What we know:
It is an enzyme of class 4 (lyase). By secondary structure, this protein is an alpha/beta fold.
Amino acid sequence: MNILIINGPNLNLLGTRETEIYGNSTYKVLVQYIKKYAKVHKVSVKIYQSNHEGKIIDYIQKHQKKYQAIIINPGAFTHYSYAIRDCLSAYSLKKIEVHLSNIYEREDFRKVSVIKDVVDMSVLGKGFDSYIEAIDLLLKGEIK
Ligand code: DQA
């Protein structure tokens, strides 16, 4: 299985950004952690990060054909990007939204995900393991 993993704005700052919420490990460590898990489980992952809404949309539009599934942490775009929502809706590949933190237990503005209704599943609040759980859901065929 080929999985596209997209990370939105400020996720590149992991390790220094709000460490009490997101932890002390860096973005590089997250990428290595996902890649190692993928290798052991024989799945191919491509991981892309951008701080720009349009770049995320361009990337998905340009490359989605090569993938069976997309795992996306849209960062703050989760809460207001109808453009990313529309982009995800346009394609029929399997889609999982992930978040390091539990957005439903934080500030009110984070409790709204405009992405939620256009993905097959959301995995929240498990730190780096949110990505691992998303990969597992795909591998176990739990998303039809
Ligand atoms: C986040 C939660 C968002 O509210 C926030 O803007 C992020 C990270 C998470 O992974 O918990 O950038 O998506």
